[in-house]
Amino acid sequence: MISFDRMAEAAKDLDETDPLARFRGRFLGSADVVSYLDGNSLGRPPRETDAVMSEFIRQSWGERLIRGWSDGWLDWPRTLGDRLGEIGLGAAAGQVVVADSTTVLLYKLARAALAARPDRREIVLDTDNFPTDRYVLEGIAAECGLALRWVRTDPAAGITVEQVAGAVGPDTALVVFSHAAYRSGYVADAEAITRLAHEAGALILWDLCHSVGVLPVQLDDWGVDLAVGCTYKYLNGGPGSPAFAYVNAHHHAALHQPIQGWLGRADPFGMGPGYVPADGIQRFISGTPPILGMVPLRGALDMLAEAGLPAVRAKSLQLTGFVLDFADAELSRYGVTVASPRDPARRGGHITLRRADFRDITDRLWERGVIPDFRAPDGIRVGLAPLSTSFTEVFAGLSVLRELVCATP
User: Fold this and answer.
1) pLDDT digits (tens, 9 = 90+) for 128-161
2) Which residues are designated catalytic?
C-alpha cells in the first residue's frame, strides 16, 4: 500500500514529467479554490477568453454590427462543427453542426431518426443515462405512441455489449446511450454497440457529453448514425456554450428534423412560403446561431488541437489512476468505495467515490476550497480536466477529503 507521504511525492514527480504541464498556466484560477475537481462538469476558462470576448464585442459586433453576418457568422455552426469533428470526434467535414443545447439537439435527432423508422415502435435506452436523455425520450415516446425498452444498468458501471444484444430486436427503431456514463465514467464499447444496433435494423444516437475532449472518439470509423454533446466541460466553451450534433452523411437526405426553422431552409433569405430543407448538415440548424457562445470555443479547440487528444487521454488515465491509488491507500479504510471502472479501457475522465454522508461532506469540501460535485444518492465525482489540472492540485483536494472522512467515520 502506498503511503500518504509517497502519494505527495508521486504527485510532484508526475507534475514534473507532465508533457501537458505548459497548458495549466493558460487557464484562469480562483483565489479561494484550493483544488478544482469539477472540470468534467464545467471547464475552467482559458485566459485568452477574456481578451477574445472583449475584442469580439468591440470590433466584430461593435464596429461591424449586422454586417458581421455577411462576414461569416452564419457559417460558424458548420465551420466550427468541422473543426470539432476533425479534432475531437473523428468526423469528416460536413457532418457536425454547433447550435442549440444538448437537450434540443437530442430531441431533434431522436425525432428525425424515429420518423425514418416508421414501422418500428420501440426505443432502447438505459436506466442510468443522464436525466435529460431519459426525459426527452420519455416525452417523445408519449408524443408518438412508442414504447421504451429500459436496460437496467449498474450505476457503478454502464451499458454493456451483452445487455444491448439482449435488448434490441426487429421492433427497435432507435438506440440511445451515453458513451461515457455521467455517474461512473464507464466508457461503453461504442463501436460494438453501434454494430449490434445496425444488425437489428435500428439507428443509434450517442450522447458524448462526458467523452468529447477527453476520450478518443471515432464516429465515422465506428459507423455511428447520430451523436450529440455539450462544449462546456472538457472543451472549456463556458457555461451554457452551444452544443453540437453529428449526423452521418449517409443520412442527410433521408432525415428531416422536426424544428423547421428558417436557417435550415434551402434558401433562408428567400423568405418564401413553405419549408424546403437545405442540403447536408445545414438542414439540422433551426434558428439564429448563438454566435457569442461560440467565441470562446474557437480558441479552446485550438488549444485541444495543440495538445493532441492522445496526450490528453494519456494524462487523463494517469489522473484517474492517481485518484484510485489514493482512494485505495487513504480513503477505503474510512468506508469510501469506488464506483467507477478500474479497467483503463473502460474508464472515462472522472472517478466517483461513495459514502453515505457525502452530500454533507461535499458542502464542507466547498467551504474548504475543494470543488468536486455531488451525485445522488451518495457519490462525489472527482472530475479531472487534463489540460488545466495538476496532480498536486488533485492530491491537495483528496487530502482535505481524507481529513473530513477521518474526522467523521
Assistant:
1) 999 999 999 999 999 999 999 999 999 999 999 9
2) 130, 207, 232-233, 381
The reply to whether the predicted model has a pTM over 0.90 is yes
Q: Which of 115, 156, 150, 146 minimizes the C-alpha distance to 133?
A: 150
As a whole number of angstroms, the distance between CA 241 and CA 262 comes to 22
79 is in an annotated binding site: no
Res 5: pLDDT: 85
Domains of the chain as residue ranges with CATH: 4-47+308-407 (3.90.1150.10), 72-305 (3.40.640.10)
Cβ-proximal residues to 313 (8 Å cutoff; 6+ apart), any chain = 214, 215, 216, 386
207 assigned to a ligand binding site: yes
Q: What is the DSSP string of 8-60?
A: HHHHHHHHHT-TTGGGGGGB---TT-SEE-BTTTSPPPBTHHHHHHHHIIIII
Cα(127)–Cα(183) distance, integer angstroms: 12
Q: Is 288 annotated as a binding residue?
A: yes
Query: 83 near 244, Cβ under 8 Å?
Result: no
List the one residue out of 216, 206, 228, 208 whose CA is nearest residue 98. Answer: 228
**50 is known to lie in a ligand binding site:** no
